[in-house]
Amino acid sequence: MTKNAQEFSEQSRHGVLARQRPVLLGLTYRMLGSFADAEDVVQEGYLRWYRLTDREREAIASPRAWLIKTTSRIALDLLGSARARRERYVGQWLPEPVPTPGVWHSNAGSATAADPADSVSVDESVSMALLVVLEAMTPAERVCFTLHDVFAYTFPEIAEIVGRSPVACRQLATSARRRVRQERRTPVAPSEHAHLVRSFKTAWQTGDLAALIAILDPDATAITDGGGLVSASLDPLRGPDAIARFFLNVLDRQPGLGIRDGLVNGEPGLIANDHSGRTLAVISFSTSGAETIDRIWAVRNPDKLGVWEQTSPLAHPTA
User: Fold this and answer.
1) How far apart are CA 45 and CA 24, in angstroms?
2) What pLDDT does 195 receive?
3) Distance separating alpha carbons of residues 87 and 180, to the nearest angstrom
4) Considering 19, 49, 102, 144, which has the largest number of Cβ atoms within 10 A of its Cβ?
5) Backbone phi, then psi, for 114, in 5-degree steps?
6) Is the pLDDT of residue 89 over 70?
7) How much is the CA Rg of the chain, to the nearest whole Å?
8) Angle CA(300)–CA(286)–CA(115) in degrees, nearest 5?
9) Rounded distance, CA 164 to CA 272, Å?
10) DSSP 291
11) DSSP 8-state assignment for residue 164
């Protein structure tokens, strides 16, 4: 092979590798619940690729498969240490919300489970509701579930990644799927979900306590994540009255708070900004078949909101 041909081949392979980045980010974000950690893991995966010798790289039939396997293993290792860090976390820990839909779509699609009701769509697989359920799983359960039910990997393929037998991986995925099924709420139409979020926003902005209470499920809970860096409730808020009063109190303490609609993990949510456009909170919702809001997750930890600064309409004023 001539030198020019070798350079062209290397550039072509580099382009193929670069195109895998969104898939790798979507995969590792689902596994870790942190976009910042996912970026670090993907970066480490690429570094390991380029540390290989030319001969080692040429022997790899599918660079994409190699990268997925490598980043999955790194994420699995990181999950173990992450669980230890989260046990020392101040207050409630929530997954890091993301605004960019393109990040979380896989090229594989969702696998078909034995019971269609157990299957998870690509969109649902990145919702805050599911990510919260994933947090309760063991690292191995989470990785097996993500690879099989979202990215459609076979259990023999997963076994090579997690270092367990295909049978054990199947059992882990089944256990994880059971957890998801137990926590799954009766769905509402996307238009109804959006309507409930808009109604919450209107009642919150106008300080209408009665309207806020009416839109919340009797068993509603709200979790706020400040990470010990900003004010937040250290314990979950339970019941419509406590939740409604908490949010109205936030508005009383910050009368200049701006509240705008936004897509949070693929679903309608709310973003709170100060007068300068700095993101103060990203809020996502779960709605029930009773046409009420039953779960609210408000991320206030500034370390988890960096990506949202780029989406603020005030952060990039037009000339």
Assistant:
1) 9
2) 95
3) 22
4) 144
5) -60, -40
6) yes
7) 21
8) 130
9) 44
10) S
11) S
Task: Compute the distance between CA of residue 140 and CA of residue 93 in angstroms, rounded to an integer.
Answer: 20
Q: Buried b / exposed e across 139-175, counting CB within 10 Å, b at 16+?
A: bbbbbbbbbbbbbebebebbbebbebeeebbbebbbe
Q: Quick one: how many helices (H) and strands (E) in the chain?
A: 12, 6
Between helices 35-51 and 21-32, what is the axis angle to 10°?
130
| Interacting residues of 137 by C-beta distance below 8 A, sequence separation 6+ | 145, 176, 179
- Rounded to whole angstroms, the Cα distance separating 261 from 243 reads 20
**């034995």: which residue's tokens?**
114
DSSP conformational letter for 150: I
In the three-class reduction of DSSP (H, G, I as helix; E, B as strand; rest coil), residue 297 is classed as strand
C-alpha dihedral over 239, 242, 244, 247, to 10 degrees?
-130
pLDDT tens-digit map of 110-131: 444 444 444 455 556 788 999 9
**Residue type at position 86:** R
Residue whose tokens read 């063991």: 138
Can you say whether residue 112 is alpha, beta or left, with left for phi > 0 and alpha for psi between -120 and 50 degrees? beta
Q: How far apart are CA 144 and CA 156, in angstroms?
A: 11
* Per-residue model confidence as pLDDT tens digits over 246-301: 999 999 998 889 999 999 998 999 999 998 889 999 999 999 877 899 999 999 99
Cβ atoms within 10 A of the Cβ of 28, count?
A: 25
Residue with more model confidence, 80 or 258: 258
Nearest to 246 by CA among 198, 209, 201, 294: 209
Residue 164 has phi, psi (to 5 degrees) of -130, 170
Half-sphere exposure for 45 (CA within 13 Å, toward CB): 31
